[in-house]
Amino acid sequence: MTGILGAYCGSFGRTTLLDIQRPIASHAHPHMHLLFKLSGADRGMLVDDEVHMLSENSCILVNSWQRHADVEALCIAPTLVLALYIDPVWYAARTNHSADSVFSRLSCDIGPVTRQSAARIAGWLVRPRRPVDTTLERAILTIIEDTVARAHLAPRQSSSDFRIRRAARALRDDIHVRPDLAALARQVGLSRSRFFDQFKNAVGVAPVMYLDGLLLERAIDLLVSSQAPLDTISRQLGFSAPSSFTRFFRERVGFPPSTLRAASSPQH
């Protein structure tokens, strides 16, 4: 099982220090996602349909709502990874880039500035007392800017179908594990098959994976910002049992929800 050695959530999004022991299943996030290997074995990741290697000299970059998963044959030993999940709106507000910008390259070389900043953040995550948000945000922004200079950002090319925007908004407004997607397709005036095709073209992932991402992020928010029991969170998200919620969570991030809560607590 993957272990989480430290986690921190802030206005920028979140960052986690992961001891990845097993391949992680296909999933997607609303965040800009940056992965840096700190030690251990190299890992291969499938981002959309391209394989990229995570190594000491190369990081992996994943755009918001871009499908990604470990390649089992290329993940044969544990890896210590610093993972950044960056809110695109937060980043856009601090730079001259649009929140809809995407990485032109999905992997790039790691410069000395990024290497030092990643090691510094990892060190902070395992300390009982962590720096204030602004200190951590400055280090994260340093990493992003250095990485963007190497990988470059470009405008996102996607459909702007108002029916898909309406459907995505409906899913965001009522995050629940079992929505009626066929009914949602009818509400926006599309057949089920046309709805699925148009949604993936506009957003980048199918409606089911989009919903999974929303569920995962809502679960993470509840785990780190409330003391609600896991069975309460499970029920609130529409899972039939806490075990189903735990399985859903672990398959997508590599560890159970209780582990994230413990790693994110102030006393960790």
UniProtKB/TrEMBL annotation:
PROSITE patterns: HTH_ARAC_FAMILY_2. One of its GO terms (molecular function) is sequence-specific DNA binding. SUPFAM superfamilies: Homeodomain-like. Coiled coil: none annotated. The keyword Transcription regulation applies. The keyword Ribosomal protein does not apply. Residues 165-263 form the HTH araC/xylS-type domain. This is HTH araC/xylS-type domain-containing protein. InterPro entries: AraC_XylS_family_regulators (IPR050204), Homeodomain-like_sf (IPR009057), HTH_AraC (IPR018060). Keywords: DNA-binding, Transcription, Transcription regulation. Pfam families: HTH_18.
